[in-house]
């Protein structure tokens, strides 16, 4: 029994570490996707202005980065509670109703994302089957699509975690790492380090 | 089918689901029930395609540039400069916001990019002189509509190609209505500031003004380079977004040294987060509009609303209503793509000028994109300012009323758009 | 609504019924009274060649079948060409008009239509070649069929022309010239062969970019140039006819093979009847719109006709690009191209 418990603990520990690692990967992909788009567009303009030649791959690589950022971002936005919602009624509801809604919404959202993951997996197989290549770089077209099922699955997992936290904890969580607006101090969202820094800078000046 | 679509959308939406769920689940259910012949993964293909457009790249890039400038010193210096000249006027900062949005409209063809680039730094300023957050956000998302009317405008280019109208003429025709909106907003800002007794900032001395101007010289070069670059043909409006990132980085990292190069990925992460939250909806919107257009829902609706020989004015008002409602729900560009081919023949038969029609349509697209429940600018503002949906829409009614009033003027008085024909 | 389920008597369903009754269906051709509801998707809008083609096609088939075949024609809407092809391939729609240019990443042999100065400057002869060529109608068609797409006819929507903000008459005029192209390595090579700097750009930005000089010229058929009003922001148009804009009437292969033979014959007959109709439609439209460009006094455009010698100068530079195409795409591409070249030469003599 003692052993089992220890095993259980190390399982949890492992899951936590895995989750941290996945989050690191998500943040890396999100930020470098944006940087990649910038490099492509700026590089293309400079190359055309200086040498007269365009980068034929700029558009394709940028589109790739946008697709990756969009779908891999689902999970990270779910952690931060940053998915856009029309929360007018939710905001006005009493806490018990909120709690019930938060659990239901997370669950149904996770289910929809898993369905989308399944269809997008089918889509990846379809694209792979056609043997299509991209226009400019002529790499297999499914390389781009493969990020959709991954993004949807990671997103679904995050919403399931969110459901679990709402079942377990007393407060209402709208993101895995974010409480409802009414339960935050000063009614403000958590700040990223950069936001904190920019505010600090403003206060100094 | 229409009922299935609407019921699923509205119920999920009101319950407070992440917006992507009603937008994706509703058409998916319709596809599964009514189009068994089409593979469900086709929705996925449409979602991918929705975010693949080249001109869409301007959105993350302008957001990135705006993030860099608001983290560093650029926006502060720029706004200090403007403030030192008109901050002491009643409603001075609000007027500045509207003016900045109009100016930025000549850089970007997109209302969303304007929300980010002007809204982010201006909001801080408005709050600091005593505006309520809801008034500040409402002003920003509505003033950014002007971007779609001032050339270059993505909405007008799409209309031009779909309808075969001259984009060049459309561009000129958008300027009148754009300036008219600015005028209304400026007057309203003045009245609003008087009524809520927004405290007047102290009038800056000329020495201070000189100081602020000197400090703002580099940031002031920013619009010059962007506008100059586009109009001299060095880069396209989409590429201008990339150049603004470059310029922001040069200023903040090399000249002001307010950001270390190692901090750039962190800023990019905050941009990536907003991009993802907004683009998931763009993806869902594409899937949604594909399903409704394949099911011919728009055509069903229009054949029901027009009498056999409608007058030009009647057609224009109907067009305005349909585009307004459409853009409240779906991305304006998508609405223009779907509805223009349907209404264009009816309008031509009724004797409407194609350029005037294009201006009316673009105007409604801009107006709808700032109007609840689904206006894309609301989402963008919600994501960028990290505010709840309700906070974002609270202050918008007066602006929407003004925009509707200007819209009626633009519809009734053809000369507001077609003024250039009388000059040339 | 109640009508939608009925309208889904689709390809798969027709196929299932046929599977159970193969011999019967083939034998008693006219005895069947099955009703078909199909979808036909095009890359253009109402009033443009492809849409009008599809509408006429639907009309003829409805008449031939005594109202049993109903085809709903979809114009180019929110979908890109790419997803239209996917929809056809996966059986979501039965018929489509697609351009080989938009399937060039899948059926790479189809890129041959992008080669410059391969066809002649006689459009009627070009159409005749498209109608009868074995290289296209047998060998290239096979390539498409392996992707579940059957091209029923190859036809042209007109020749491609150049527009520029300066005269484009000789390869020298292309030195350093910023030419807008679609994204395709083969098209890039073609313009590099003339010494130009090809620039890839989406059409959404093309009008403004031509106006402001981000790019200096572009290529398109006349009807497209007039539709998009590119001539308003360009001073010159060269009747270069450097290649022809090809469209294919296509059908989902699996669906078509599953149809009763009398219905298949009806479709093939309609395709034949449409050949001259399509040719006349594009000729009338391109001629009318060329006149519109010439007679536009608000935005004057000087129209340049190339002499045979001037064409030849470009042709010589364009021929080596064929080797790039063959190297890039492979052996089958070489066979198809060589056979097509023979056919074109034979047709000219
Ligand atoms: Na604009
Ligand atoms: Na909208």
Strands ordered across the widest β-sheet of chain A: 1-2
CA-to-CA gap between the ends of chain B? 51 Å
Shape annotation of chain A:
elongated
Largest sheet of chain A: 2 strands, antiparallel
Helical fraction of chain A: over 70%
Q: Identify the quaternary structure here.
A: heterotrimer
Contiguous uncertain segments of 5+ residues of chain B: none
Cα-based radius of gyration of chain A, to the nearest Å: 21 Å
Number of H/I helices of chain A: 7
The gyration radius over C-alpha positions of chain B equals: 22 Å
Largest sheet report of chain B: none
Structural class of chain A: mainly alpha
Which class best fits the helix and strand makeup of chain B?
mainly alpha
**Tally of helical runs of chain B:** 23
Helix/strand layout:
The complex is a heterotrimer of chains A (205), B (424) and C (349).
Chain A (H helix, E strand, L loop, with lengths): L1 H50 L6 H22 L8 H5 L2 H36 L11 H4 L1 H22 L4 E3 L2 E2 L13 H12 L1
Antiparallel strand pairs in A: 1-2
Chain B lengths: L1 H14 L4 H15 L6 H10 L7 H14 L2 H13 L5 H14 L5 H18 L4 H11 L10 H10 L3 H29 L10 H10 L1 H15 L5 H19 L8 H31 L2 H9 L6 H18 L2 H18 L4 H15 L7 H10 L3 H5 L3 H16 L2 H4 L1 H4 L1
Helix pairs in contact in B: 1-2, 2-14, 3-14, 4-7, 4-13, 4-14, 5-11, 5-12, 6-7, 6-8, 6-10, 7-8, 7-19, 9-17, 9-18, 10-18, 10-21, 12-13, 16-17, 16-18, 16-21, 17-18, 18-21
Chain C lengths: L2 H4 L4 H9 L2 H6 L8 E6 L7 H16 L4 E6 L6 H9 L5 E4 L24 H10 L1 H12 L3 E16 L13 E4 L3 H9 L3 E4 L5 H7 L4 E5 H7 L7 E4 L4 E9 H5 L3 H34 L7 E4 L2 H11 L2 H9 L1 H18 L1
Parallel strand pairs in C: 1-2, 1-3, 5-6, 5-7, 8-10
Antiparallel strand pairs in C: 3-9, 4-7, 4-8, 4-9
Helix pairs in contact in C: 4-12, 7-15, 14-15
Tell me what you see in this structure.
- The complex is a heterotrimer of chains A (205), B (424) and C (349).
- Chain A is built from 7 helices and 2 strands; from the N terminus they run ααααααββα.
- By secondary structure, chain A is mainly alpha-helical.
- Chain A has one domain (6-172).
- Chain A has a two-stranded antiparallel sheet.
- In chain A, helix 1 (2-51) packs antiparallel against helix 2, helix 2 (58-79) packs parallel to helix 6 (147-168) and helix 4 (95-130) packs antiparallel against helix 6 (147-168).
- The model of chain B has no long low-confidence stretch (mean pLDDT 82).
- The longest helix of chain B has 31 residues, at 264-294.
- Chain B is mainly alpha-helical.
- The radius of gyration of chain B is 22 Å and the shape is globular.
- In chain B, helix 4 runs parallel beside helix 13 (237-255), helix 6 (92-105) runs antiparallel to helix 10 and helix 9 crosses helix 18.
- In chain C, 48% of the residues lie in helices and 18% in strands.
- Chain C contains 15 helices and 10 strands.
- In chain C, strands 1, 2, 3, 4, 5, 6, 7, 8, 9 and 10 form a 10-stranded mixed sheet that branches.
- In chain C, strand 1, helix 4 and strand 2 (69-74) form a beta-alpha-beta unit.
- Chain C is globular and about 65 Å long.
- The B-C interface holds B 1-2, 34-39, 42, 45-46, 49, 53-55, 152, 154, 157-158, 160-162, 164-168, 230-238, 286, 289-290, 293-296, 334, 337-338, 341, 345 and C 1, 4-5, 8, 10-12, 45-46, 72, 74-75, 77-80, 82-83, 86-87, 90-92, 201-205, 207-209, 211-214, 227-229, 232-233.
- The structure holds sodium ion (NA) (2 copies).
- One sodium ion is lined by residues 105-106, 108-109, 147, 150-153 of chain B.
- One sodium ion (NA) is lined by residues 105-106, 108-109, 147, 150-153 of chain B.
